[in-house]
Every structure is written in structure tokens, then in C-alpha cells.
Task: structure prediction
Amino acid sequence: MRVPIIGVGAVASVGRDADEIFANLCAGRGGLGPMRGFDGERYNGKQLFEIDDRPEPGADRPLRATEFLLDAVAQAAADAGLGDDLSGVPVLVGTGLRELRSAELWWRDGAPFGADRLHFGTALRERFGTADTLTVSNACSASLYTLALGADLLALGEADTVIVAGVDSITESMHGLADRVQPNPPTALRTLDVNRRGTILGDGAAAVVLRGEQVRWPGGRLWGKLRGVGMTCDAKHPTAPDPVQVAEAMRQAHRLAGTRPEDIDMVLLHGTGTPLNDLVEITAYGEVFGEAAGRPVLTGIKPMTGHTSGSAGLMSLVTTLQVMATGKVPPLVNLEQPIEEAAGLRLVRGQEAKHEVGLAQVHGFGFGGVNAVAIVEGS
Amino acid sequence: MMTVTGVGVALPGADSATALATASRPGDSVEPAAVLGKKGLRYKDRATQLGLCAAQRVLTDAGLLADGELTVDGTRTAVLVSSNLGNVDTVCRVVQTIADEGTHGVSPMDTPNASSNIIASEIAIRWGLKGPNLMLCNGPASGLDAIRWGTALLRSGRADHVVVVGVEPDNEIARRLVGGPLADGAAAVVLERAEAAEARGATVRAVIGAHTRGLDVAGTIAELAEVESEPAAWYAPAAAAPALSQGLPVHDLAAVWGELSGALGVVQCAAAVGALDAGADGPMWLVAGTDSDDGVATLVLRPPVPAGARPAAV
Result:
């Protein structure tokens, strides 16, 4: 499978579009800051990777996730030359937290909100005239799951063009439940570092436009081609990841793509910075790649974007496409002392690296043991 | 050819496709401990418990579970769950507790339930279902969307067996959000290719026909009529009725069970199979979503094809 990716869009704490995000990632500039929408007095961890669009500090408003999503989808559609009428285009949205932040504000503060806005179809229809939308709430691998569904839809001939997106705005319940068990919360997100102390959440949305392989289209940019997406479920524990099915998701992705680990030039890690995730991820990687483990460069964006949950996988994919286009690889900032299991691996550290990437592997793993791995090649 | 090979029902007073197809009002509420045993239920939210009940029944009914053991390859078994209100109560309760007492008032046991896909992942965990695991929270049409995407997983070769569950819990928070009581129940179906069903000797209960998704009821039904023969019965919300062909039975399941939200399409499937089991005429045309929603999904269920009537090679 070689599914053309013909448009990208993104918004995050580190930038309002895909280019600005990538420029900041390459410069090593992260988006961590004092929490703006929650009451900092209530939390040990008072820093988040938020998109700064609140009316005033400490005040919040509903439907921010919806706005991020519409922004990213509009960017991707414009990039692909589709315009604002998406009536014939399925839009598949992966999210961890839907509009649950709005539900919180509705219940606690009486903010206006209805069940018709818990999912994103209502707003997508209003803005783009869409008839076929899907909100998949698959935790932190959600947008790579929808990437797989989108590619399948094209392969089955049910559509010529599909937009796949991911979005999340931080909920206070998710931050609060994590904060409850972190008396000494992380002050930085340190993927693969021996001193990593956990993840820090971020706002974000990302979108890509996929075209059917046989479909001809006038002009537009070819960012890259999706070769395959593996998806598995641990079926083991609601929150703790399991290396067996994480590794299987990687193998499955290669089987579907017709590629081998030794073909991979770069791995974009899930890299949440929690003690367990990073260990499981790098262990599974080592097992699958074996002697080829020292070949590709490894990096991740969460130390700068935060853990953007449902949008994280596609945010990593969009970053990967830009790496392929520019030959620049953003660094794993905050990584001072890599864990033993990562010894001998080509971790991109300190500053951006120059590296030609023709084939890359992108990871997304989530609560509930939902694992997804995408293989993408450059144009 | 995609088929339904099992039905599981956990609605108040209805524990089977037959009971669902003939029920005229809800009965006693579902007691998950009576279905699943008490072990391991303590910190699971109501939606997860109801989903587990329907899943256990559908796995058993389809013959995928025998004596507590899976009879098929768990890595080839996918789970799709549809629910809109599933964990909304947990999220709202936690944010209120933080406002009232600070984070020391919240329970870490709520952490898994703060993620909406907890229902789908708990079903996978309980029976070792390691295939694609998807939580759909897609509004009024979500249940039929789940059936459609379940068949897509089969067609694209990502799974050989797909467990589709629709569930909505009833609680004060969900009631306030949707403006009325919810069904507080779940239904489930197992989807398989006809060849896979035949290979393991499973009984085909219904054949899945075409599906459409569009902006309004009339348009999506017209699109369906281009490829499907006339319905013998409808399963549709009351608000969709004016657009349906007259003179046929219309089953408005929310009138019986209360708000079904994301569970509706799956409950419709389960009820339609129950009717087909009892010898009702098909095909059944299912409609979820109305003109005032973000989208309308349709799906056709046909009676199983008798063995002798099947073409030799398909």
C-alpha cells in the first residue's frame, strides 16, 4: 500500500500551524508554561503545554478542542486544495478526551453545552458540510487508529479522499487524577531519561488528507505515502502498557507495509516520559529491530509539545513528513542521561540533526493497551 | 458476505434477542454481578459493567466462548464499542470533587474511567481479545456506525471476528445532558464473514446488506433503495418516521427503553435478529440519527440464506 498524503495541518502549544510547530521543534523550543485555564492553587503540577487562547488567566471556555480540530482540518484541506466544502469527504477524528472539558465546565460552572457537541460531527458539519464523520475515542493512540481506518476506507474503495484528524484539549479530571498520585510532579517531560518522572499533558490537533492510490488529482503537494498501520490491543491492563502487543503492532505494521525494520531511517517515538511507557516502548523496539536497532535515528516531540493525547500520533506523523521534506530532525530535548535500555541507539539529542529520511516508523500507544504503529515513506 | 453470528442483550428485563424483540416495556434493571460474578467489578463504572454483560452473552451466543475459554484466536478478534455517555459521569464527578475538596478528594481508582475507551479495553482484557480495539463516541448514529466499521475491519482483513457492543448507562449527570432517562443497558452482536462462520460451524442469524450515511433521513434512504430491495420492517427513531415508506411496521426502540443514544444502532440490530429468529420477514432497514442530528446512518439486515439456496461459488 502506498496511500498519498496530500495535505497536512496542525495546532499545538508550540505553534499555530504545521510550519510554525516544526520550526519551533527544530529550534528546541517547547510550549510548557503556567496553567492558564485551571486554578493552579489546586494542583501540585502547575505547568501544562496549553494552546494560549483563553480570554484571561484562570478563566476557561467550552469547545476549545472543537476549535483546534476545525483549525487543523481547515489547514489540511487548504493544503490539499480541497477548500471549505468537504461534503463528500469522510472525516475521521481520533481523540482521547472528546469535548469532555466542555462537559466539565457545563457540570461544574453551568457553561452552555449539549450532548450533540460531545463528538465532533456537529461542528464539522456546520463548518464543512460533512455527512460522514467519525469520532473515535481511543486514548493516546486514537489518531493513528483513525489513520488506519482512513487508509482502509480508501483501499476498500468507499471513498476517493479521506481526512484523518486527531484532537484533544486537556481535561481537568485527567490532569487532576494524575496530579493526585504525583506529590512531586515532573517539571519537564524527559523521554527516555533516567530521571524522567512522568508525562505532562498538552493541547493539540493535527490532520492529514489521504487520497486513494488510483485517484488522479490536479496538482497539490505530495508529502509522502502511507505504507501501513498496525493496530493491536494488549488485553492486559487498563493503564499499564505491555511490550508483547506493542511489539506485535510494529511487526504488523511492517507486514502490512511490506517493509523490514532495517529499512527504517527514523523512528518517531510515542515517548510520554512516564517510567513505564518509555521502558516498554524501547524494549519492544529493541526486540523487533534486533541487530538493526542501531540503524535509524530515534526522536520524539512530547518534551516540546507535551502529551497531546488523541492528537499525538498524527502530530508525530506530520512532524515526520516535514522531516522527510527538509532533512532536519527535531531533538529529544531534556534528555540528559538515557536509560540503559537505550544504550547504543541513535537518539537525537541537544539540537536538530541533519538526516535524510526515506522511510519512517511512527508510534502511538494508549490507555486500554491500544497500540498503533504507522510506516510512512517520503515522496 | 458479512453476517451476524451472535446476539447479546443486557437491557432491563431483557437478556436475549428474543426477549428484546418481544419486550414492550423495561423490566428489572440489569445486575452485572449476577451475570459476571462479583469479582473484579468493584471499581468499574456502570457503562463498563453493562458492556461486559452484553459482551459475555454475545461471545457465548456466537460460540466464541465455551466454558469460559475463547474458542477462536484472540488476536484475530476485534472489539468495537459505541457509547456517548459512557464515562461522562466520572469526568463530571471528578471535576466537581476537585473544585470542592482539591485533588486529595479524588480516587486514583477513577483514573482508568477518565478515559472514554475504558469499556472497549475492559472487554478486551476480560477475554483476551487482542485485535483492533475501538471506542466509537459518534453521536446518535454511532451504533450503526459501529456495525459499519466492524464490517470494514472484516473486509480489510484486520479481524476474523468482530464483537460490537452498544451501551448507555443511566445516571443523574447523563440524564441532565440528554434531557431524560437513558436505557441503562447494552446490546451486542458478533460479525463474521460467511466463510469464517461456516468454517467453525456457526449459525448465521442475519446477513448484513448495504449501509449509507448522509445528511438527512430521506436522502440516505433513497441512496439505500438504489441497491437494496424494499424493506419488510423499519427500525428507526420516531422523528425519522415521516420520511419512511408508509404501511410497514416501524420499531422505535427508544419509546420502549428510553434514550439509547450511542447504543441505538446495536440494539436495533439485536432486536432485528431476534425478530428474524422468530421467523419475521426481511429485509429490515435500520435508521439511526435524524434530520436534526449531525448525520444519519442506515443499514440493511437480511434473513440468512438457506443452505440449499446459496450459489455454489461466491
About this structure: The CA atoms of residues 174 and 185 of chain A lie 14 Å apart. The first strand of chain A starts at residue 3 and ends at 12. Residues 64-79 of chain A form the longest helix (16 residues). The radius of gyration of chain A is 19 Å.
